[in-house]
Amino acid sequence: MLRTGLLISLVLVIGLGGWAIGASVPTVVATHAVFGEFVQAVGGNLVTVVTIIPSGFCPANYDLRPRDIRAVADASLVIYSGFEPWMDTLRSSLKSGARVLQLKGNWNTPDGAVAKVDAIAAALSTLLPDDKKTFTANAAAYTKKLTTLAAALKQQAVKLDVAAIPVICMQWQVPFVSWLGFNVVATYGVPEDLSMKDLVSLATIGKKKHARLVIDNLQSGVNFGAKLAQEIGAVHVVLSNFPGAMPNTATVPDLFNQNALNLFSAITPVSRK
Question: 152 lies in a domain?
Answer without folding.
Answer: no
